[in-house]
Each structure stands twice: as C-alpha cells, then as structure tokens.
Design a protein that fits this description.
By secondary structure, the protein is mostly helical. The protein has eight helices and two strands; from the N terminus they run αββααααααα. A two-stranded antiparallel sheet has the order 1-2.
C-alpha cells in the first residue's frame, strides 16, 4: 500500500475546503442573476453548481497527486457531486444537487450500519491510523456516527424541502461543517476511555 505523502496543512485545507467556500461566495454574487446559454435560461445557482463540479474534481485530484492518497469518503463525495450536480445542470433542476448531501450521509450511514450488522467497524478501517482506539471504542463510535449520518441526511431533506435555496446554501456551507466538528468534539470522553497510546519507538 502506498504511503501517504505529507504536504503543508494549509495547502491541504485549502484544497479540501476551498471549493466549498468558492461555491458559497459565487452563489452570493450570482444568486439573483439569470444566464441564457444555448437558448436556455439558467439561474445563478445552476451556473454556480456547474462551475463547482470541475473545481471539486480538480481539487480532489490535486490532493491525490500531492499526497498519493485519497480516502473512500472523498471518492464517494466526488462521485455523488458529479452525478447529482450533473443532473441538476443537465435537467436545469436544483433539487438534484440539494439532494446530494442526503445521499452522501445516507450512504455513509448505511455502510456503517452494514458493517455493524456483520460485527465490524468499517470506520476503524478508514480512520484507525488517525486515532487508535480499542475495538470496543470503535464499535461505539461507529454506532454513534451511523446515527449522526442518518440524522444529517434527515436534516438536509427537511432544510432543502421546507426553506429557501439561500437558507439551504448557508446550512450546507456552515451548518453541516459545524455539526461534524461538534460531533467529534463531544466524543472526547470516548477517546479518553478507549484511546490507545501510539508506539513511537518504531517497533
């Protein structure tokens, strides 16, 4: 297995979060405009979505080129952005792109649930190097994250169906990110209870 190459953390952060920030800024600037392309009218949200897709693909490709590795969550995210974002642009219907977070979180939650049914933590397989835990800790964290992902999927569905596009954009840009950060911050007691000290002796 190829070892991940280390890059400047600021560069990695820019590549991971830059496309989302650009999407947000572009939406605020273009949300009230209508563009006629090939005889078809597209509102600002669709145009911004069309631009976001290649930017996200390029940023993910840059992470792969610089580090030699991208995780499965990043791959799944890119695939779903291309599929649902592409459908929104092709059909000129913003609902498909708004459904994308629902599909992502439902997929992640479903994969974790499938692993739990088999008595395994797929989360451990993805994140073991980042935060070593005892097996019991991985199982508990996986159950909590599974429920969190399903909750996020439901929240996204409620927001995009019941509120305006602008509110959904704010929710997607800031709400989802803040929720993920808050979730892991509240898992401190679990990490303390089940954490395993890394062996730095090189053995």
């Amino acid at each position: 297995m190829a070892q991940e190459r280390q890059i400047n953390p600021m560069v990695k952060m820019a590549l991971e979060y830059g496309p989302i920030i650009l999407f947000f800024v572009a939406y605020l600037r273009l949300k009230d405009r209508v563009f006629t392309i090939g005889g078809t009218e597209y509102d600002g949200f669709i145009v911004v979505t069309a631009a976001f897709i290649p930017i996200l693909v390029a940023a993910t490709g840059a992470i792969w080129a610089l580090t030699g590795k991208i995780n499965r969550m990043q791959i799944a995210t890119v695939v779903l952005v291309v599929v649902f974002g592409g459908l929104s642009v092709w059909l000129n219907d913003d609902r498909f792109f708004k459904m994308k977070p629902t599909m992502i979180y439902a997929l992640f939650g479903g994969l974790l649930a499938f692993g739990l049914l088999r008595g395994r933590s797929y989360l451990k397989y993805v994140m073991e190097e980042m935060m070593p835990l005892e097996d019991a800790g991985w199982m508990l964290l996986t159950k909590r994250l599974m429920l969190f992902f399903f909750g996020m999927a439901i929240a996204n569905e409620l927001i995009w169906r019941m509120f305006s596009t602008e509110i959904w954009v704010y929710f997607k840009t800031f709400g989802l990110t803040a929720a993920i950060f808050a979730f892991f911050m509240t898992q401190g007691p679990l990490f303390q209870t089940y954490g395993i000290e890394k062996d730095d002796s090189g053995a």
